[in-house]
């Protein structure tokens, strides 16, 4: 343990830690009808509030206000405005973390050197504070024989202040080399080895905005029923203002990016046929195209694009009895590989396993018993 606490190993260096905090809170909610069968079928206002007291960071107040209107049998409108918080958890506050060996840029000599990247908690963290505005509509048309159709779309905009985030070791060294002294303060030398302290901080501001959408259509077909289902998200904006440095990172995935985001589009479509005792589903999963680094051009890299990816899945089940069901599935039927998101320093390009399917074609089968 003494060697670990002294960061004496190339990897690991785990340290024991403990921590606790207490929480007291109270909340209330109310819904007020405003209109009934007057101009619209219904119009309601709802609001909620919560007071929470954390022993580590004090008292915070959160609230929500919303309006919902059933305009007609086919149209429903909804909108919300809220102020929310997220308190730092035990690990973010008190973890002693660990250190591991890696290769990073020495921002003082501009040479890649062996180094130690260390993580851990920060007892000075305070709750994140966010303001969310959203609005949308639900359409359930009953004309033209579309009684089984439901469509919804919701736009949202979220601004988080004092956002808790951990800046990566690569970002810390890159920004320090560009003269950002605040990041240089997270770099030291332990026994002559470059050591980078990547602990969580309350960043200034993070924002995101986009559109969630969903569609369902149910109808009878050849003695059974068909359900068509589509759901997706388009992220229009992701930005971070951290320690005076502004970054827009929606749709950039490359390892060289100071902040790695997500593809702007992600969605799936599925068709299910249910004939009582059995059902089959064909599904497509779609991940939109992206860039390695948003601001790169032809002089920076030959190909800055990350192409769109589509996966096909098949599923089915059969009820042997009322209590026994057999099921099977094949995910990623065509064995599509994950998209490469290379770095300018990599010999072999890596990929983002948390975004893309990194298992390839996968078969599953089983039995469900109900008692």
Show the helix and strand layout.
Elements: H1 2-5, E1 23-38, E2 40-54, E3 58-70, E4 75-86, H2 90-94, E5 99-106, E6 111-118, E7 128-139, E8 149-166, H3 169-177, H4 181-184, E9 187-190, E10 193-197, E11 200-221, E12 224-242, E13 245-248, E14 265-274, E15 278-287, E16 290-291, E17 305-306, E18 309-319, E19 324-331, E20 362-369
Parallel strand pairs: 6-10
Antiparallel strand pairs: 1-2, 2-3, 3-4, 4-7, 5-6, 7-8, 8-11, 9-10, 11-12, 12-13, 12-14, 14-15, 15-18, 16-17, 18-19, 19-20
Can you give keywords for this protein?
6% helix; 4 helices; single chain; 14-stranded antiparallel β-sheet; mainly beta; four-stranded mixed β-sheet; 371 residues; 2 domains
Tell me what you see in this structure.
The chain has 371 residues and is mostly beta strands. The protein has 2 domains: 2-248, no CATH class; 266-371, no CATH class. The protein is 6% helix and 56% strand. The protein is built from 4 helices and 20 strands. The protein has helices spanning 2-5, 90-94, 169-177, 181-184; strands at 23-38, 40-54, 58-70, 75-86, 99-106, 111-118, 128-139, 149-166, 187-190, 193-197, 200-221, 224-242, 245-248, 265-274, 278-287, 290-291, 305-306, 309-319, 324-331, 362-369. The strands form 3 sheets. Strands 1, 2, 3, 4, 7, 8, 11, 12, 13, 14, 15, 18, 19 and 20 form a 14-stranded antiparallel sheet that branches. A hairpin with a 3-residue loop joins β14 (265-274) and β15 (278-287). The chain is globular, with a radius of gyration of 26 Å. The mean pLDDT is 88.
């Amino acid at each position: 343990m003494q060697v670990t606490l002294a960061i004496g190993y190339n990897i690991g260096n785990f340290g024991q830690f403990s921590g606790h905090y207490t929480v007291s809170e109270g909340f209330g909610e109310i819904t007020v009808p405003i209109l009934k069968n007057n101009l619209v079928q219904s119009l309601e206002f709802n609001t909620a509030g919560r007071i929470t007291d954390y022993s580590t960071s004090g008292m915070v107040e959160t609230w929500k206000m919303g309006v919902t209107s059933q305009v007609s049998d086919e149209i429903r409108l909804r909108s919300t405005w809220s102020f929310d918080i997220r308190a730092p958890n035990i690990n973010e506050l008190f973890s002693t973390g660990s250190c591991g060996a890696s290769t990073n840029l020495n921002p003082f000599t501009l040479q890649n050197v062996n180094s130690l990247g260390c993580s851990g908690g920060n007892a000075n963290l305070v709750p994140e504070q966010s303001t969310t505005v959203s609005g949308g509509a639900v359409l359930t048309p009953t004309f033209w024989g579309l009684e089984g159709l439901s469509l919804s779309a919701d736009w949202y905009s979220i601004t988080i202040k004092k956002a808790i985030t951990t800046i990566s070791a690569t970002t810390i060294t890159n920004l320090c080399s560009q003269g950002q002294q605040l990041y240089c303060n997270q770099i030291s030398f332990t026994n002559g080895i470059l050591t980078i302290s990547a602990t969580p901080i309350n960043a200034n501001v993070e924002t995101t905005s986009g559109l969630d959408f969903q569609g369902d259509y149910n109808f009878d077909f050849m003695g059974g029923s068909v359900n068509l289902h589509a759901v997706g998200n388009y992220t229009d904006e992701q930005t971070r203002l951290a320690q005076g440095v502004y970054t827009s990172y929606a749709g950039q995935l490359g390892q060289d990016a100071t902040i790695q985001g997500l593809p702007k589009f992600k969605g799936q479509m599925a068709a299910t046929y249910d004939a009582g005792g059995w059902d089959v589903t064909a599904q497509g999963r779609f991940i939109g195209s992206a860039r390695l680094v948003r601001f790169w051009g032809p002089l920076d890299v030959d190909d800055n694009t990350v192409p769109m990816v589509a996966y096909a899945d098949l599923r089915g089940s059969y009820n042997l009895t009322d209590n026994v069901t057999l099921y099977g599935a094949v995910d990623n039927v065509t064995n599509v590989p994950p998209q490469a998101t290379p770095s300018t320093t990599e010999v072999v390009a890596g990929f983002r396993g948390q975004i893309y399917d990194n298992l390839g074609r996968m078969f599953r089968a089983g039995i469900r018993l109900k008692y």
